[in-house]
């Protein structure tokens, strides 16, 4: 099989579980980050200066790219006989692909809020600390898919904010309800499927959860998500809270 199609399982068998196709913040990784940032900034600039009709078309185009990107991975793994339960789109970022699709079809504020509060930091962190490096090289379906889909997931809610949507700290309970409400069934689903969606079944394969394990131990690594979520929400909402507080002070 050509290296382009090889999955984690084949790579682990050939090179060992500790193999990484390129180092964090090495030349390839920094190039991917720079291209992703340039793409997001360029699209945001175009969206901000576009008419309402063009904005709608851009949002539909980004949504189609997200769906096609996710479908390409599933189809590639299936056609090469490598598909297993771990490729179900049940990680938080994969679920957010469908939230983007639903928002494009229905234009719901709860979708926009969830995408802003969870999708932007989650997808950005995935790009900064990728957990998909155990493939033969950067030129593989899994690596290219992972970089492109996470860049698109940062882009989509960024466009919503650039286009005028204003997140509100008052909607944080809705965001938390979505997060914990989706994580609970997935935690129990992981057991029979032998999967690790949301990284709830074990901490391995992800730099962040591995750090939680070093600090808290393997038994309690899940507790590391609580301060991490609180910090992410604080970073995402502090500017809006300050803006809201200042606007009240002027009235």
What structural keywords apply?
single chain; 251 residues; mainly alpha; globular
Please, could you describe this protein's structure?
This protein is mostly helical and 251 residues long. The chain is built from 9 helices and no strands. 69% of the residues lie in helices and 0% in strands. α5 crosses α7 and α5 (109-128) crosses α9 (225-250). The chain is globular, with a radius of gyration of 19 Å. The chain starts with 7 loop residues before the first helix and ends with a helix. Pfam families: TMEM164. The chain crosses the membrane at residues 24-46, 58-77, 83-103, 115-133, 145-165, 172-189, 220-242. Keywords: Membrane, Transmembrane, Transmembrane helix. This is YwaF family protein.
Report the biggest beta sheet as strand number plus sense, adding barrel if it closes. Answer: none
What structural class do you assign from the helix and strand content? mainly alpha
- End-to-end distance: 67 Å
Query: How large is the count of helical segments?
Result: 9
SSE order: HHHHHHHHH
What's this entry about, in short?
This protein is mainly alpha-helical. The chain contains nine helices and no strands. It has one domain (3-250).
List the helices and strands and how they pair.
Layout: H1 8-15, H2 27-48, H3 52-79, H4 92-106, H5 109-128, H6 141-162, H7 172-193, H8 207-216, H9 225-250
Helix pairs in contact: 2-6, 3-4, 3-6, 4-5, 4-6, 5-6, 5-7, 5-9
């Amino acid at each position: 099989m050509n290296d382009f199609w090889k999955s984690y399982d084949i790579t682990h068998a050939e090179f060992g579980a500790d193999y990484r196709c390129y180092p964090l913040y090495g030349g390839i990784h920094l190039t991917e980050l720079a291209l992703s940032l340039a793409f997001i900034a360029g699209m945001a600039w175009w969206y901000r200066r576009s008419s309402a009709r063009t904005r709608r078309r851009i949002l539909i185009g980004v949504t189609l790219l997200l769906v096609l990107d996710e479908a390409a991975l599933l189809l590639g793994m299936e056609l090469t006989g490598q598909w297993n339960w771990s490729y179900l789109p049940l990680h938080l970022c994969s679920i957010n692909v469908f939230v983007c699709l639903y928002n494009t079809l229905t234009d719901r504020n709860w979708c926009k809020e969830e995408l802003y509060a969870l999708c932007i930091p989650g997808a950005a962190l995935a790009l900064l600390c990728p957990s998909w490096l155990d493939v033969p090289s950067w030129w593989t379906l899994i690596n290219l898919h992972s970089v492109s889909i996470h860049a698109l997931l940062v882009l989509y809610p960024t466009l919503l904010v650039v286009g005028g949507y204003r997140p509100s700290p008052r909607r944080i309970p809705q965001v938390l309800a979505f997060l914990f409400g989706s994580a609970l069934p997935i935690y129990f689903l992981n057991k029979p499927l032998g999967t690790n969606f949301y990284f709830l079944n074990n901490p391995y394969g992800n730099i962040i959860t591995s750090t939680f394990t070093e600090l808290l131990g393997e038994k309690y690594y899940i507790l590391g998500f609580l301060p991490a979520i609180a910090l992410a929400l604080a970073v995402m909402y502090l500017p809006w809270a300050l803006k809201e507080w200042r606007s009240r002070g002027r009235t």
